[in-house]
Predict the structure.
Amino acid sequence: MIKQFDTNDLAKLYVPSSTSHKGQNGKLLLIGGSHLFHAASLWSLDIASRIVDMVFYSSVPQNNQIVETLKTEWRNGIIVPRESLEDYIKEADCILLGPGMTRTETVDRSRSIGSLKELSSMTDEGAQTYFLTKFLLEKYPEKKWVIDAGALQMLELSSLKKTKGNVVLTPHILEFERLFGLDPLSSSVEDMASLHNCIIVLKRHADTVCNNAECVLVEGGNAGMTKGGTGDVLAGLIAALACKNDLYLAAKCGSYLNKKAGESLYKKQGLYFNASDLVGEIPKVMRELISPDGL
């Protein structure tokens, strides 16, 4: 049975200690971006950098021009070359995979790769998305994962078998139907989370967030949040929270905080806000709802 989100869960979220030092409050690795989409990963990076101590970012190796742009536009983390990716996976508390990555309909799913070096010979970035997602999930099943956008659209459900519930999937309705072959009624969301031992955040006017034991409904938000990039903000928020919190707690609280930020913006400027505005508003909402001393 689906329940309403309990706002008491917000008090369970990790708040950095006044005596903590650099590195103790979370390290996130974001793997995303492509020649076609690069702003998506910037929104995820931007919100995450306001929550965790360090954000590592890795894009496609051919994406040198966009990486150079990132160096000038985004100064709150470290850009990681593809050849060093696995070193940072080991260091990160959570990995966000997918914002800004592309998909394809022509990938040879009977093929497998033995190392990330094999991706360099692939000219189709959608194929790279498929093989990168499959390879990393199956090689590092013990890590915390948030799978969004392009990686979610290229995900093979069999890759979830070893992950032991350590994966959050963030589909909108069409992505859910594509991934599971089902109409996303609340009951099927719960069934799919249980069957595949994962956490699902179904994004819609009222988000449905399920793990293999329960589901919650997160209401709120407004039509201003239909704009491009708001889903990337949500993915970055959930992944950042997951660095120092239980994945399911991060998923449902992230959904709630994202919607509350949208409501806060609506009070100030109606429906006329964008993903960047949302990034700026979330920390204010978090301070109000999470920090016990208002600091």
Notes: The longest helix spans residues 247-269. The first strand starts at residue 2 and ends at 4.
